[in-house]
Design goal:
GO terms for molecular function: ATP binding; ATP hydrolysis activity; DNA binding; TBP-class protein binding. The chain is α/β, with parallel strands linked by helices and about 325 residues long. The protein is about 50% helix and about 10% strand.
Length: about 325
């Protein structure tokens, strides 16, 4: 039926099922909508080219859903639709749709920027840094802001010494400033930075060096087990917690309870081994935004990249055996 009435069926899906994907009050609604769209995407294939642009962005917004089955279904649909996007460029909006849905300006802009990042505008940070950004650093921040805006996650792969720490710190600080400007009673959720143990102090130093102390207060979560237990009482006083991969492995039962704002993995290629205890622990961390910083995301083979993506967008690349 869907193949013989593609336009009518997809019009109903876009106008009724797509909004259900954003229904935070009902996981069953999100699950049902995700399964329906997944079935249609798998069954209709290239016949969905005219509708690909209207489906991709809503699906992306759900790829961080707290429910595993929702993430799995929308990720599978997204992966199948992405190859259709180049074919959809220049096509007129599908007929039979609400004019507002068919010509969603924000979604159109998003797809242009996704397919060609030269279309991404310069992002104005919501705070002043104690340093002048180089052009490539501004471009990196533009991209990080693009990810944040559309609830995506990504890898910043600048070479060592080019300012990945600065760029990541800047986007976290800007997010804090933007949230405070809303004049709400609550502060933004704290962010978690995970790095090699030798870099914990370096991260704290760099943030203090570049970011106004009124915006970001760091806590170095390290030391013995007893010392870390004592440090937990100070978590509420800080909005950036810096710790090591080894501590995450040891304390995942505690750290995994929180929903962090940003979870940033420095030298993120450390989780390239999908079967290691550190990788398993890191993937239990929950956050609104996930970033990996690494100058060498692929060190041995393509499976290294699979493990990194499994942290960023679980299910997007299937299982390690696929």
């Amino acid at each position: 039926m869907a193949k013989s009435m593609t336009t009518n069926v997809m019009a109903a899906v876009i106008e009724n099922a797509i909004p259900m994907l954003g229904d935070v009050s009902s996981v069953h609604a999100r699950q049902g909508a995700g399964m329906l769209i997944s079935s249609l995407v798998q069954g209709l294939g290239v016949e969905l080219v005219p509708f690909a642009r209207l489906l991709v962005v809503p699906l992306l917004r759900c790829m961080s859903d707290c429910d595993h089955s929702v993430r799995q279904s929308v990720t599978r649909s997204f992966a199948a639709l992405v190859p259709l996007l180049p074919l959809a460029r220049g096509l007129a909006p599908p007929s039979g749709l609400n004019e507002g849905l068919a010509r969603n300006a924000e979604d159109t802009q998003f797809l242009e920027q996704l397919l060609d990042n030269s279309h991404i505008d310069d992002y104005k940070l919501c705070t002043e840094l104690k340093v002048t950004l180089r052009r490539y650093q501004q471009e990196g921040i533009n991209w990080l802001a693009f990810l944040k805006r559309f609830k995506l996650h990504g890898i910043l792969c600048d070479d060592m010494g080019l300012g990945k720490t600065l760029q990541a710190s800047a986007i976290v600080a800007s997010d804090v400033a933007e949230f405070r400007a809303l004049d709400t009673c609550e502060d933004v959720q704290p962010s978690l930075i995970v790095c090699p143990s030798t870099l914990v102090g370096h991260w704290a130093f760099e943030i203090e060096k570049y970011i106004d102390a009124s915006l970001i207060s760091t806590l170095q979560y390290s030391g013995s087990a007893q010392e870390r237990i004592c440090l937990r009482e100070q978590f509420h006083k800080h909005n950036v917690i810096i710790t090591s991969y080894d501590v995450v492995r040891k304390d995942i039962d505690y750290l995994g309870q929180s929903l962090w704002n940003y979870c940033i993995l420095d030298e993120g290629h450390i989780i390239k081994n999908a079967k290691s205890k550190i990788t398993a622990a890191v993937k239990q961390l929950k956050s609104q935004h996930r970033l990996i910083l690494s100058g060498t995301p692929i060190q041995n083979n393509i499976m290294d990249l699979w493990s990194l993506f499994d942290f960023l967008m679980p299910g997007f690349l299937g299982t390690d055996r696929q």
